[in-house]
Amino acid sequence: xxxxxxxxxxxxxxxxxxxxxxxxxxxxxxxxxxxxxxxxxxxxxxxxxxxxxxxxxxxxxxxxxxxxxxxxxxxxxxxxxxxxxxxxxxxxxxxxxxxxxxxxxxxxxxxxxxxxxxxxxxxxxxxxxxxxxxxxxxxxxxxxxxxxxxxxxxxxxxxxxxxxxxxxxxxxxxxxxxxxxxxxxxxxxxxxxxxxxxxxxxxxxxxxxxxxxxxxxxxxxxxxxxxxxxxxxxxxxxxxxxxxxxxxxxxxxxxxxxxxxxxxxxxxxxxxxxxxxxxxxxxxxxxxxxxxxxxxxxxxxxxxxxxxxxxxxxxxxxxxxxxxxxxxxxxxxxxxxx
Length: 338
Hints:
Elements: E1 8-14, H1 18-29, E2 36-43, H2 49-56, E3 62-66, H3 72-82, E4 87-92, E5 95-97, H4 101-111, E6 115-123, E7 130-131, E8 133-138, E9 141-145, E10 155-156, E11 160-164, H5 181-191, E12 195-206, H6 218-236, H7 239-264, H8 267-282, H9 284-297, H10 303-311, H11 322-334
Parallel strand pairs: 1-2, 1-4, 2-3, 6-12
Antiparallel strand pairs: 4-11, 5-12, 6-7, 6-11, 8-9, 8-10
Helix pairs in contact: 1-2, 5-6, 6-8, 6-9, 7-11
């Protein structure tokens, strides 16, 4: 019997990426899976991106246009909201999809009914290095996964991944603007007792630097990255877990932040990181409300976040990632108490 395939939506976020859009959109149009809905969310581009899409992809792409840059988080939330598919791929404008990407993701979705997020292997421009996500991503302690046998992670690679509308009203916290989003979505998915799945049967490639790379204020991105990572830590974890992790977090900040300042001399970056902590200390009410919302979504305990990371061999962690190795050893000690 002939089965009608469900609609799959792809939301492409763009900011002054006209030079990237042709290959990006064409890779979506060449997908073997049908039907597909394509949405372009434009964050106030001034490089002629909208005119280009209207000229060459008229009627094939639904355009959601803003007159200013509303950020990565809100931009993707808007694309998610406007989409009609049960699964929505959040895609950067510098990504080129393998022609079977959607088909492979939907096959994975059928096999994994508890999947909240499905990503795939991602290849950088020179194709010499791949990434599929992270074993660990907490407060800037990141342990990337390059093992092509691993199919379940804390966060999946961020160039493009599909989000299950059944489990999310919107994927991101719009106050984040940019950075910390993947950690937010990954932790949120696991604590809903759902899975972050890597589909190993397909991949995508990065063309180069997309919208994020055009940001003018590097200091602002340092602030946002620091603040949002702290927010993820405070809003999702139980108070007991936070207290247990404080010693290793203190070591992390002393070694990574102060030593970085000494070695690089970038006082402005250090100041923006201090500003992030000042924001945290002066916005307690807002943080408590975010924590209340995140805690109300939890369907499992904090151990769910760390069970994969403590189970992998230390050899899986890159040799130069000393902090991640130390974090793993410490987690194994406190894990029974979490």
